[in-house]
Input
Amino acid sequence: MHVSSQSVTGPLARGLLDAYVAEIAVSLPGGFDATRSGSLDAAEMTPPAGDFLMLFDDDSGEAIGCGGLRPLGDGRLEIKRMFVTPRFRGVGYGRALLHALELRSRELGAREVVLDTHTVLRSAIAMYERAGYLECEPYNENPYASKWFMKTIS
Output
């Protein structure tokens, strides 16, 4: 497995993001409209402001996961659209991707990373908590979020 910075508008990124949206739409009560859950502006997810990382399987070269970093100001970056394809879950790829996003956040000068999620995403919440994320007050008005987390990384 390896991680690399990619364009959020590239075809591999679009494929993963479409899979993310499709999965979240059936997971969340009431569905999901990605346009209401926070920006995925390409300029925000391009260095030096932020970044978009993709996770690749070394054996097949397949793109198997992604996650974006967008600036919020005050030394904070937000993790957006973190996703690992279902067949690669449960073996540590999600944790590896989360760690790569944290490292990249540090490289971009962030002191803290934040993210939001929904209570139905229990496995994701457990992973964030195991990685040292603490529940915090809401920092946005994402209508699909019911939990907000933060982690100091500097």
